[in-house]
Amino acid sequence: MIGPTGRITNLLLLLLLRGNLSTSFSQLRTPLHYDDTQEHSSWSSQNLSSVPEVLDVRLMHLDLSRNFIRHINSPGLYLPSLKTLDLSYNQLQTITEGAFRDVTKLQELNVARNLLSHNVDGNSQALGSLNRLRRLDLSMNGLDDDAAELYLRKKSVLEHLDLTGNLLMQLAPKQFADSRSLRSINMENNLITVIEKGTFEPLKKLETLNLAKNNLVYICDFKLHQIKLLNLSRNSIEVFFTSTDGQMYNLEILDLSYNKLLYFPMIPTTNQLRSLHLQSNMLGFLEADTMLSEASSLYRELKADDVNDAVEYDIYSNWRMMPLTSIDLSSNHFRSFPVEAVSQLTSLSTLNLSNNCIQAISYNMTKNGGGHGENFHPPSLTFPSLRFFSLQNNGLWQLSLFFLENLPSIETLNLRQNAEH
C-alpha cells in the first residue's frame, strides 16, 4: 500500500519523467543552445535539407549555413524581425518568388557557396523583395555578368557587396545602376578583363574596391576620386595611369603587387596616398634612364591632351606631393637604388627593397648633379622620416657614410643576406 507521501513522490517522478521526455523531443526539433526567448538561432551543420518550419517569430539573426538546403519555397520564412540570414555553404538553387515576403527587415544576407547560377530569373525576383538589404554576399555561385546584374536589381540601400569567386568577365555601368549606395565591393578571383568607362564613377559613396586575382592588363585614365582602398594585386597589369584633372583623390591604400609593372604608377597630382604596394612586379628591369624615357612617352601617348610639354614632363613630378608613409618594392628587378622615385617622399617611414639585385646605392649624377664633381651630394637624397628600411637579400657590398647620415630617424635597418665583404 502506498501512502500519501508515496503518492506525492511517484507524482513528482512522473512529472520529472514527462519533463525529460518533453525536453528530449524538443531537442530533436530545435538547434543547440536554442530557447524561446533568444534572438539568435544557429542551425549550422545540422544536415538540414529544408528551412525548419518552427522558428521563433522574434528571431533577429538566423544561421542556416553548411547544410543541404536546395530550395526555399513560398511561403518560406515568417520572421518579421529578422535582420541577418546566413544560408552560405548549402546547395541552394531555387528561391521562389515570395519566399522572402515576410522578412521585410532583413539587412544582411549571406548566400555564398551555393548554386545560384541556376534559375537566375526566378531567384532574382525573390531577392528583389529585399529592398532593405545593406550587406549581400553572393560569392562562389558561378555567376556571370548578366546574372550579377539581375541579382543587384532593386538594391538602392545596399552598402557592402561580395562577388568573390564568380565568373565575371566584363564590368559595365548597368550592373550597378540600382545599387548607388555601395561603400565596398569585393570582386576578387573572377575573370575580369574589361571595365567599361563609367562603371564605378556614379558610386559616389564607394570607398573600398577589391579587384585582386583577375585578368586586368591596363588601368588607364583612373578617375575614382571617392575610393580610399583599391586592391588590384595579382592581375597582369602593365600600366597604371590616373587622370590629371586637378581634383582631390581620397585614395589612401593602393595595392598593385604581383603584377607586370615595368614603370612606376602614374599617381594623381592631389592625393592622400599613405600605403603603396608594388612588390613582385618587374620594376627596375629597364635601366633607370630607359624606364623614365619609355614611361614618359607612354603616358604622353595615353593622355596626350593633358601633357603638352614633352621636355618638362616627369612621371615623378607628383610623387613629391604624396603623403606616402609606406612603400613595398620588394621582389622586383632593381639593380640600383631608385633614388628618383623614393627620395622625394619626405613622409616615408617604411621602405622595403628586399629581394632585389641592388649592389650599390648611388645617385644619377648626370641628371641631377652634373658638373659638381665626385663629392657633390644632392640635398634631395634625404629620408627625414624613414624608420624601417629593408635591403635584405640583395647584392650590396658597401653603404656610404653619407647615405647613413641621411637617415636621421632610422630605427631598423635590415641588411641580412647581402654580398660578403
Percent of residues in helices = 10-25%
Estimated radius of gyration: 30 Å
**CATH homologous superfamily title of one domain:** Ribonuclease Inhibitor
Low-confidence runs:
1-37, 307-313, 364-379
Task: Give the biggest beta sheet.
Answer: 15 strands, parallel
What is the helix tally?
7
Average of per-residue pLDDT values: 84
The share of residues in extended strands comes to: 5-15%
The best one-word shape is: elongated
- Quote the distance from N terminus to C terminus: 104 Å
Q: Output the strand order for the largest sheet.
A: 1-2-4-6-7-8-10-12-14-16-17-18-19-20-21
CATH domain class of one domain: Alpha Beta
Question: What's the total number of strands?
Answer: 21
Order of helices and strands: HEEEEEEHEHEEEEEEEEEEHEHEHEHE
Report the structural category.
alpha/beta
Provide the CATH topology of one domain.
Leucine-rich repeat, LRR (right-handed beta-alpha superhelix)
CATH architectural designation of one domain: Alpha-Beta Horseshoe
Throw out a few tags for this protein.
421 residues, alpha/beta, Leucine-rich repeat, LRR (right-handed beta-alpha superhelix), 15-stranded parallel beta sheet
Q: What do you see in this structure?
A:
- It is a single chain.
- With 421 residues, the protein is of the alpha/beta class.
- It has a domain at 325-421: Ribonuclease Inhibitor (Leucine-rich repeat, LRR (right-handed beta-alpha superhelix), Alpha-Beta Horseshoe).
- It has helices spanning 4-29, 120-128, 145-151, 288-302, 339-342, 365-368, 401-405; strands spanning 40-42, 61-63, 71-72, 84-86, 94-95, 108-110, 135-137, 160-162, 170-171, 184-186, 194-195, 208-210, 218-222, 229-231, 239-242, 253-255, 275-277, 326-328, 350-352, 388-390, 412-414.
- The strands form four sheets. A 15-stranded parallel beta sheet has the order 1-2-4-6-7-8-10-12-14-16-17-18-19-20-21, with no helix packed on it. The chain has a two-stranded parallel sheet with strand order 3-5. A two-stranded parallel ribbon has the order 9-11.
- The relative contact order is 0.05.
- Residues 1-37, 307-313 and 364-379 have low confidence and may be disordered.
